[in-house]
Structures are given as structure tokens and as C-alpha cells.
Task: structure prediction
Amino acid sequence: MCSIIGYSGQLTLAAPLLVESLKKMEYRGYDSVGIATLNKGNILVSKGVGKVAEVDQQLHLNELPGEIGIGHTRWATHGGVTDKNAHPHYSCSANIAVVHNGIIENYQELKVELENDGHIFKSQTDSEVIAHLLELNYEKSNFNVRETMTRTFERIRGSFAFVAVFSNGTIAGARYDEPLIIGISSDALFLSSDVLGFLKHTDQAIFLDNGDIVIVENKQYTIFDNQQTIVNRPVTQVAWELGSSEKGKFAHYTIKEIHEQSETMLKPFVTSNNFELFCKYLNDASNIYITGSGTSYNSGLLGKLLLSKFAKKKSEVYMSSEFQYFSDTVEPLSVVIAISQSGETADVLHSVKRAKEKGAKILSIVNIPTSSLARMSDCYISLDCGPEIGVAATKSFLNQLMILYNIVCILSNNNIKFDSKERKKLQAMIQTVLNLDNKIKTLINSLHHDLKDIYILGRSIHYPIALEGSLKIKELAYIHAEGIAAGELKHGPLALIDKESVVIVLNPNDETYQDVVSSTNEIKSRGAFIIGISDLHNDLYDIFIELPKTDSYLYPLIEIIPLQIMSYYLAIQKQLDPDYPRNLAKSVTVK
Ligand code: F6R
Result:
């Protein structure tokens, strides 16, 4: 979950371009940053702890001379967050430097071997072994970069993409289970974790296959597959819009993305998405599995409920990190719906691979059409919500739900109303709730500033939203939050409730209403502070957030909005950066 970039070209000097690229990809990891450039045959490295802008300000990264270079933002896996562990890593002779994304599983064994051979390590990272291995193989192969790369690739195990700069002016990269994309313009070549790393300069991209090695020298690139044969990979034109990611009038991407939901929510229905084909696969399936991680898992939970309630279809939903333990029943007529914003989450890709090996069909709901997941799928539907830069998923969640509702509408022969007229009405309601922003901000400011625990109650289709709301509060505001199925309170969690507790109840006036009122009474009598989110006022609520009235099954789409806004203001109240929560990264490409 780091970002890597390599650049060789005549557009500008390397350093300012690398710094710009890293800012665009910082969502992938942001605990430290570094670049290496080649200047007059010497590789210069500058790196430090902090976000790109901070480190650039301290170290003047963008002033490093040279026309060729590599860069990295880190999300620590092996070794603490220190200057030394930041990438790039040098080889001993400093004639090679490397940046890496992923995990080298056999690094300890390689490190011992390399140390016995006289190599001196300066960091605690797994990544540094690549620099020393490259150096060893460079010497062994009489300074042949291709052979060096192949030999190095053969020795390392795990999931990785890495890019190295050599003092002879070559940059080279390789990938296995982590993304690496070539950006091609007439003046420059890029090797990047994400198209965002070069999209300002070119929309022409090659998505390397697993096992590919690429060598960039003399303004040319050559790709070798895992048989060491030169291969041509297709050039894809990527959408420029993917690169448009400014904050506009908003203080943070997170709140901007929350507010643009009333616009982005209809996007999956504008372009021709594969709804009919997707539903055909589901109709033909012997059994349906749904998988995703974090927020995408929460939308899967709601998907399962909607499929069962309205389309009378049985499905199983598993967190992607758990899917492997439940995959014994997957067989060739099974269908797996994989949900992912990035399409690069390692747990999701791993589940999909496993299901594919068993012959299952893969249907995905994904934001990035060029992602590994989309490319592994038999059919995908694109979220089309534009780049989501804030690390917390907001607008992608709503679009996942919009797509799931439409699928259920088709499969159930319109048992739920979700045509374009209904979606427009829904859009207006979402805008109404977004307009509560100021009210919610005031509400949050009125709560005491040292909240330790927040509970969110909901039953049936509201329970996945309670889980999603609590995930948002945890990651944005670092407050312990728990989504609880309201009926489960009496089976244990009620013991936690006291006068200090803040409880949010998701309580639209539907079949769950009375039961949730009973649970709210139980909490109220223990002195908790109650925030009610509903279309119907109740005296039990200390604070009432009013939702517009609509068909009962649509409430999950609306009630998530105040929870997102609350989470944002809870973070602001604590002076946290909601766009980049500590210890997290947008794209979790390690298992
Ligand atoms: C929560 C969040 C994460 C992601 C999860 C899956 O706000 O962003 O829980 O939802 O890491 O990511 P994708 O959807 O890219 O597979």
C-alpha cells in the first residue's frame, strides 16, 4: 500500500514531476516519502517522515537535479516510520536505488544471505533486499539490466511492484500481485502504481501483467513476460476525468466527496453499464456469494438483505479476508459479486482468484474500470463516482448501494421502484439531507469534546448502515464506535450503556420502528444521550435529525448521509485531518 513512480523524459526535471505525482497518489500511503534522481551519473536520494508537502518543504525534494528518477510514498509494513525506512533504498555502491510496494515474504532469508555476502543494510524494511539483490545480480550479469531484473525477480517471493533506477540511466520495474502501469507520452515514460501518477501528462497506459518486467532506456520501453520473452501489451486510453481531483470550495476532500453525492449517485445510470448481463449471470447461478472489505463489505451486507427480501434470492456475504475459509462450496455454477472502490484490495483479489480457480464467474462492482478486479471479472458495473481521494469511503459507498438497488429492482421484476423517476426523487431527498450540514455541525459542537464511545442502533436494512456509520466514526474521529443490531442489545451490549454513552438510533417509520423504540427506551432509562435519525419525531430523542419521507426500503440510502457528516465534524472538532486518518491507506494492497 505504497505508491511508486518512475520517470524518464524531457518534460521537466524529474524531481518536481515526481513530487507532483506522489501528491496525487498519496492516498495509497502517507507516513513517509522520498525520491531518487540521476544526476551526472550519480544517484541522489532525499527522503523523510511526513506527508509529501511537509517533507518537500523541509528537504526541498523538488530541487534535486536530474532528468530521470523514482519516487515513493510509504505505508509502513516492515520497520517503523523513520527516515531510514523511507524509500528509496540504495544498494551498497549507490549505483542502484529502488522503491517498492508490497511485501517480500522471504526477505529475512535473503537478508542473511546478502549480509553473509558483505552487503550492509541501513533500514529494517523488507524492501531493501531488492536493492542489494539487484546490485549482486548486476555485478554477476556483467551489468546487464535485463538479466539483473530477471534473476532478482526469480529470487523474491510475495506480492510486489518495484521500480529501480540504475546509474547508467536505465529505469526498470517488475510486478507480481501489485499494480504497475506504464504511462506513455511522446516526451516521457512513467512507471506508476496508479494512472493518477502520470495522468496530467498522458492518458496512454499499459497495465502490466503479473510477472512482467519492464525496462526503460534510450526513450524506449521493453516488456518481458515471466518466460523472459519480449511481449507487446495493449495500450489503453484512460479517462482524463480520473485525474480531476481538486477540493474546490471545501476544506477537505472528505466533505467535498460527501457533498458531491447528490450528483455522483446517478452516474452509474448515465453510461451504459452492464446491468442486464450482470443480472443474467445472477439468474443463471447455482449460488451467489458476495464479498468485499470494510465499507464495501457493509454494502454487500445490505445487498444480501435486499436480494433476499425483494428478489427472493439467497446469497452468502463474506468479508474478503475471511472468504477463503468459506470457499469450499464454490463451484463452477457459482457467482461471486466482488465489491470494491479501488479494485486493488489484496483481500478481494485473493478471494476472486480462489473463486476463479474453482470455476466461478466473477461479477464486480468497482470504481476503477482499469483496476485488477475489473480486469479479472466476467462482467463489471462501474461506480462512476469519479476519484475518491479521502481515505474514508463515502460517495463510493452510496454508489455501491445505488447499483445494488438497481440489480435487485431488475431481478425482482420491479418489486422495488427504482426507475429513473424514483432515482431523481431520491436525489432530491439526498440533497435535502446534505443541506443539514450546518445543523449537524452545530450538533457535534454541542456534544462534549471527549467522547469515548458512540453506539449506532439499527435493525434489518438499517443494521449495515449502523456498521458503516460506526466505521466512519472510528476511522475519521478515532472514537470507539459500534454498530449494533438493535435486537441484540439485551444479549450483552446493554451492559456498556451508562450516562456517558451517546447512542444514535436509525429509526425510520417502517416495520422495525416499534422494536427500535423499545430498545431506545431501554437505553434512555440507563441515562444515555440519544440522537434519533428518522422521518418521525419521538420524545425519546435528545436530538432529532429529520429525514424526508419516502418508501421504507430506500431509507438506508438516505440515513447514511448524516452519519458521514457527523463523522467528518467529529474529526474536525478534534482537529484531525479527515482526509488522511492515521495508520490507514486508501488502497489496501497487502493481505
Ligand atoms: C472505509 C474504507 C475501507 C475500504 C476497504 C475496501 O472508509 O475506505 O474500509 O472500504 O479498504 O476498499 P475497496 O473498496 O477499495 O476494496
Q: What stands out?
A: The chain has 18 helices and 25 strands.
